[in-house]
Amino acid sequence: MNSNKRFTVVYSIVGTKKEALDKAKNICVEQTIEFPYDLVTDKYVKNTIVGRVESIKACGKKYMAAISYANETAGTELTQFLNVVFGNTSIKPGIRVEKLSPPAALLKKLQGPRFGMSGIRNLTGVYNRPLLCSALKPMGLSVKKLADLAYKFALGGIDIIKDDHGLANQAFSPFDKRIPAVCAAVKKANKETGATTLYAPNITADGLETIRRAKFAKKCGAGALIISPGLAGFETMRMIAEDNSIGLPIFYHPAFHGSYVVNPDSGISHYAFFGQLTRMHGADAVIFPNFGGRFSFTECECREIADGCKAGLGKLKPNLPGPGGGMTMDRIPYMKNFYGHDAVFLMGGGLFSSGKDITENCKKFRRVTGTIL
Amino acid sequence: MNSNKRFTVVYSIVGTKKEALDKAKNICVEQTIEFPYDLVTDKYVKNTIVGRVESIKACGKKYMAAISYANETAGTELTQFLNVVFGNTSIKPGIRVEKLSPPAALLKKLQGPRFGMSGIRNLTGVYNRPLLCSALKPMGLSVKKLADLAYKFALGGIDIIKDDHGLANQAFSPFDKRIPAVCAAVKKANKETGATTLYAPNITADGLETIRRAKFAKKCGAGALIISPGLAGFETMRMIAEDNSIGLPIFYHPAFHGSYVVNPDSGISHYAFFGQLTRMHGADAVIFPNFGGRFSFTECECREIADGCKAGLGKLKPNLPGPGGGMTMDRIPYMKNFYGHDAVFLMGGGLFSSGKDITENCKKFRRVTGTIL
């Protein structure tokens, strides 16, 4: 729906048709001039800068409004684009961002996922099945115990071993000690198996320390990175993704970001948030809570995420949906049927509860996912 | 409720008493070990690392659960503290963070507001009334028109003139041209009036450009800064607040942060989000939508914010609540009664709609706020 001069955002709005149309008109003003429309004297401001309701139609019990904005309101800054999309309107209940169609010039400027779905397949050599991921946990274990666990995971054929997102730089497992130790453990296992398991340390930290940790992890031989931009900032993730001196695949974690998606009538849709926004900020894979686990996401919402991860978005590569959060062995066949091969399945606690030998459990995870080790 | 070894978070939880208690117990695990509790063998992990329900009691239709966590789960990192507080639980509906009692070691490490409420009073010389703020708008005006507007605001006795949060670096008003022009206009007016009106440019931008803009603004003679950490990142705001080479008061703007507060049963309370979190991240003043304007905040929620801005939080200074968003002259007496003197009143569009002479309108704003110019 984008012209070459305006970009479009689709919002879902709660209310009667009249209420929805009034709210849509208010969005046009709130997201741009934030000023009494009748008092505007400048013609350029009045005719070009103010948003326009391009269409509004019923969709279930809500209304879908497509609103266009002049490209120059956002310029080519991602933060200002998001400001026009949802800055003040995020504070109004009953309005949800459903879908973004960013300006071409902005998409051209963004790198997006450096590796994306196909790049992660190339790095791991896994082409004919979903990828497997597990997490080093629980928080509180020593570096030695975590490294030992990583070794066992890698021997069992896990493709990506990530730090649990709660492992930061705590006294029980300091970052600068954990990363080299786990890297060495995974390297040893890879030598024995001939596989290329990747270790993704959690680099989420305060301020520029996040970037230092990314560089340190790269130096230690980490194969990927995990970051929670809800804590470290979306822009910090994008900077790391676009930094050629780092050049590792980025796994997005949703910690502290749930408030954007957890209410169906406000915030941002699963499609736009986990699909479009993570790609614009350079994530190569997107961890999210699968349906049927400890969290409340529905099958429909998870389908939206998988769709958003691969929908057309300028030159930006598709990234890899990573459902997790309470997964168990018995659910893998259903998940495989639901997501197909283009996903990374994340099993944490479930890997521990299916038997005492963790390496055997990993092998079982591989078997039920479709390929005999 | 903090011991010297554990810190406490109060959550409100939707459900029956039994459901609320079950959810509270789940939070204890989800926010720490994220691992089947019965499979934990390590005693330190089981007895210390896992969160503890310290109390749970009915409060209206919900339950308030106080949960304590070992200080070492967060260490002294603010991002990891927030991760323990609400990382994964942010993705679960029906649970809201109500109040934080951060570890003393973390509060000791943070600078908090450099100026805070009293520091901004010292900078502006305003002690006996609420401060007055207005915004340069609408988006789309040229640098010359914005500078002219700033001059008129300053002549009329506005204490703080901020960029509208939608002014970034667009072609119609590039940052590096706007800031020196508006600084010069405000300086000229200050010379004429003898007052010390502060100009707060909007520095929100992509990546490290936000920090560059802060430094550029300082160099141009800006008296304060406005930033939307929902876009640029809370950590970016904190870095700028704690940077001695910048050293300007920081005005927090809530753009793109609304999803955290807009639903009463999930996200984070107005008290904790606008009060406690903005102070931990160094904001000296907090712009938020006042009750009765274009937004939906209630009087009770605004009271929470004003309380959170000054409640005890280690050595962190109180910051200044900044209600705005659809304010008009006739509401000022009620606001003054509600907030008292310890606030900065933000009027944007309302200043334009009360007469053709903008400087006269500013003087009226000053008169109704309590001091004759």
What does this structure look like?
Two copies of one chain form a homodimer. With 373 residues, chain A is of the alpha/beta class. The first copy, chain A, has helices at residues 17-30, 43-49, 71-74, 78-86, 104-109, 116-124, 143-155, 175-193, 209-220, 229-232, 234-241, 270-280, 299-310, 332-339, 349-352, 358-369, and strands spanning 6-13, 52-59, 62-70, 95-101, 131-136, 160-163, 198-200, 225-227, 250-252, 267-268, 285-289, 320-324, 344-346. The model of chain A has no long low-confidence stretch (mean pLDDT 96).
In brief, what are we looking at here?
2 copies of one chain form a homodimer. In chain A, 41% of the residues lie in helices and 18% in strands. Chain A has 373 residues and is an alpha/beta fold.
Provide key terms for this protein.
373 residues; alpha/beta; homodimer
Cα-to-Cα separation, first versus last residue of chain A: 48 Å
Helix content of chain A: 40-55%
Number of strands of chain A: 13
Structure class of chain A: alpha/beta
Mean pLDDT of chain A: 96
Q: Strand content of the residues of chain A, in percent?
A: 15-25%
Oligomer status:
homodimer
Rg value of chain A: 22 Å
Low-pLDDT segments of chain A: none
Looking across the biggest beta sheet of chain A, what order are the strands in?
2-3-1-4-10
What series of H and E elements makes up the topology of chain A? EHHEEHHEHHEHEHEHEHHEEHEHEHEHH
Strand count, sense and barrel status of the largest sheet of chain A are: 5 strands, mixed
Biggest interchain interface, per-side counts: A-B, 87 and 87 residues
Count every helix of chain A, treating DSSP H or I runs of 4 or more residues as helices. Answer: 16
Gross morphology of chain A? elongated
